[in-house]
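Lecture notes, part 5. Sequence design as translation. It can be helpful to think of inverse folding as translation between two languages: the language of shapes and the language of residues. The source text, in structure tokens, appears below.
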């Protein structure tokens, strides 16, 4: 009887596990966005770096104290930021940025836009299809 109970338990176990968890987001390869020359300035785009290593970065006006504090918390959760959550881009924050980005292919203490998106500091831009406009009943265009 014990074998039958164990068998029934094993058969019912998958039913108790619930839905499968989604895959975690993949870490970005920050080296992909590095350019040898500084690109021309465009509205809403900012670049950081030096000499032959330029990469897109959050614009300074987007890095409000609230966003910097969010960045500090995101780095702290990952065990990279050891300082206070001050909302200031201080030495401890820059060191934590470097510790996060360096294994991902970007040895810089300036935050890249891809790292900022991955950490949830700036919005992720999605290429979604435009919604189709529904024609209203009696619309002359639908005749």
């Amino acid at each position: 009887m014990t074998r039958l109970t164990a068998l029934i338990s094993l058969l019912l176990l998958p039913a108790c596990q619930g839905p499968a968890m989604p895959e975690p987001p993949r870490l970005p390869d920050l080296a992909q966005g590095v350019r040898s020359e500084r690109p021309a300035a465009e509205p809403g785009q900012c670049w950081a770096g030096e000499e032959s290593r330029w990469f897109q970065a959050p614009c300074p006006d987007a890095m409000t104290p609230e966003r910097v504090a969010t960045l500090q918390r995101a780095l702290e959760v990952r065990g990279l930021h050891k300082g206070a959550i001050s909302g200031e881009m201080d030495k401890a924050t820059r060191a934590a940025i470097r510790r996060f980005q360096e294994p991902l292919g970007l040895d810089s203490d300036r935050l890249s836009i891809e790292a900022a998106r991955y950490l949830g500091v700036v919005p992720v831009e999605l290429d979604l299809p435009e919604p189709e406009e529904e024609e209203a009943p009696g619309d002359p265009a639908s005749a």
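The translated text above is only one of many valid answers, since several sequences can fold into similar shapes. The beta strands are 46-50, 53-57.
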